[in-house]
Design a protein that fits this description.
This protein is of the alpha/beta class. It contains 9 helices and 13 strands.
Length: 339
Amino acid sequence: MGKLWNIAVVGATGAVGEQMIECLEERNFPVGNIKYLASSRSAGQILEFSGKPVMVEELKHDSFEGIDIALFSAGGDRSREFCPSAAKAGAVCIDNSSAWRMDPDVPLVVPEVNSHVIAQYRKKGIIANPNCSTIQMMVALKPLHDYAAIKRIVVSTYQAVSGTGKKAIDELSKQVGELLNGRPAEVKVYPHQIAFNCLPQIDSFESNGYTREEMKMVFETRKIMETEIGVTATTVRVPVFYGHSESVNIETGRKITVAKAMELLKNAPGVELVDDVANGVYPMPLDATGQDLTLVGRIREDESIENGLNLWVVADNIRKGAATNAVQIAEILIGKYLK
């Protein structure tokens, strides 16, 4: 038997934390001891790992002694506060929040795209997971960029409520029930009713009129692709429980035909080509939910410019957009860098 690794899951009782645990089990990650950490409100809960009970402990600065890898999904404030303590104790932090993504000393990683930058973890002991929408877009665009050098990206996202967490999932479900039974929908999580509606606001607005979510996609894409590529985004919350969808338009340095794009994507890691429009086959959130591939279809040449392409990209935002991406990073860490 190979070496076993001691793992901490921070935010273990949240939607992404629970999925991290499931991914570790599914992928047979070589776990020695596992520790579940959360707020004082959740401490004492009993969860499981591989059929064995594990008690949730309160997250504290001394929680990381003996931990090799800490998977964080507890929000930016807790990541900013506790990642340095975990790193000081010798753990490598893989953080799912936005807290460290744009830190020049922290690698921002999509394993299918830029796994080479994982080596930079030594600077701070922290690796950042990109935004869920950025992850799936990067997986889809990497093979096209390698072939034809993308110059500009225009992306509109249609993001599931699970990206906000359990409270949003519950609110959508409750609102649907209320409205179908003739009662007014109670609004708590979002600024407006989400059931049977679309909200062109994810996160707060910046001074330039874009939301923080939109600017995350701009800045993170440039960091991951290691180029000052042109990116503009519109992000929309839609009444879907799981699975983010994206309409992506790219302009490239040389022409990519539809046939060539399909060839490139068909052979790309982490991608499933789902494009048979004659038979009504294209990516949908229902198809992406519960698995880790990024589905790409509706591939068309953009007839308004010389070298343009349109794609429809869908992925499970809790899995590939968060938990699975983090566990994939951990797999590369133990395979190439940790001893």
